[in-house]
Each structure stands twice: as structure tokens, then as C-alpha cells.
Design goal:
The chain contains 8 helices and 7 strands. It is an alpha/beta fold. The chain has a single domain, classed as Rossmann fold (3-Layer(aba) Sandwich), CATH 3.40.50. A 5-stranded parallel sheet has the order 2-1-3-4-5, with helices on both faces. It has a two-stranded antiparallel sheet with strand order 6-7. Strand 1, helix 1 and strand 2 form a beta-alpha-beta unit. The radius of gyration is 15 Å and the shape is globular.
């Protein structure tokens, strides 16, 4: 039986470029990594970047070939959404499956981690906080963002957690299953 992989789901945040470091670190250490992306994520970073880092095709369109969300689910030991936008968090918390990432999440039968990254006002908005609590009650592990100045110049909680923290939490879940 082939060893299952770490599935990284990239969503449409400026922090998407930081996911390259995470994917590079994991693959460099010999862990099997596959990346899926939302269409919005491709506005920040191209799939070819992740294909070069993993040596595997990156899927964006769940209808491109077969049932991409089921294929992704079947191969995943861990699903990590890095970065997770307010939009994707809301969709996940409310069971909306209108793209490859959210469909894969709903089909997933493995540990799920979410690393929020957004404007501090968006992160602290009652709707986002409610959605994060819902995900936690659904068993999703939330990797809290850092405080600091974000790209737009606002300051507060919303910066993507440090890549080393995210990597450690992913590996903690992955290695439990090995």
C-alpha cells in the first residue's frame, strides 16, 4: 500500500507565497506532498510553482478530470489549508462545496488543519470568529495567526502563523498516522 501524503490546500490570500516555503521544506525532508488550489489562489501564485516544488500536478478545477476531490481525499493522510482566507473558512464552516478545496474538505476522512491569514479586522469580525469556532467544534485544528503589520498596513492578528509552527503541526498529525 502506498503511503498517504500531506495535502496542502492553498487559497486566495497574499500569504499564498509563504506556502512555497512550507511545501519546499516538507518535500526536502522527504515527505510526500500534493497541492490543490482555489482559482483565487492562482491570482497570487501559479500552480507551476508548486508543481516544480513537489514534482506533482497541482489541481485547481475539480471537474478537469474524474472526481478530483475524491482522488485528493483518498491520497491524504492530513489536509492543511494554508493560507485559509475568511471566505474559505466561512465556506468550510457552513458546508459549502463550490470548489476543489471545499469539496475535498467535505469529503475528507483525515485530520484537517487550517492556518488563517487575512486582514486583522476580517480575522476579528464576529462572523469569522464564529466560523472558526464552528470548525473547531467539527474537529478542525486551527493554527492561530500571528499579530503584526499586514500587507495593507493594518496591524493586529491576521498574519499567517510562522511556517515552522505550521510545519510542526502538520508533521505532528502526519506522523501519528505513520
Amino acid at each position: 500500500m502506498e503511503k498517504k501524503e500531506i495535502l496542502i490546500a492553498v487559497t486566495g490570500s497574499i500569504a499564498a507565497f509563504r506556502t512555497c516555503e512550507l511545501v519546499r521544506n516538507l518535500t526536502k525532508e522527504g515527505y510526500p506532498v500534493t497541492v490543490i488550489m482555489t482559482e483565487h489562489a492562482t491570482k497570487f501564485i501559479g500552480p507551476i510553482t508548486f508543481e516544480a516544488l513537489t514534482g506533482k500536478k497541482v489541481r485547481v478545477d475539480e471537474y478537469e478530470q474524474g472526481m478530483a476531490h475524491i482522488d485528493a481525499r483518498n491520497s491524504a493522510a492530513v489536509l492543511a489549508v494554508v493560507p485559509a482566507t475568511a471566505n474559505i473558512i466561512a465556506k468550510m464552516a457552513n458546508g459549502i462545496a463550490d470548489d476543489l478545496v471545499t469539496s475535498t474538505y467535505l469529503a475528507a476522512n483525515c485530520p484537517v488543519l487550517v492556518a488563517p491569514a487575512m486582514n486583522p479586522n476580517m480575522y476579528l469580525h464576529p462572523s469569522t470568529q464564529r466560523n472558526l469556532r464552528q470548525l473547531e467544534s467539527d474537529g478542525v485544528k486551527i493554527l492561530d495567526p500571528q499579530s503584526g503589520v499586514v500587507v495593507c498596513g493594518d496591524e493586529g492578528y491576521g498574519k499567517l502563523a510562522d511556517i515552522s509552527v505550521i510545519q510542526s503541526k502538520i508533521l505532528e498529525e502526519y506522523l501519528k498516522l505513520s
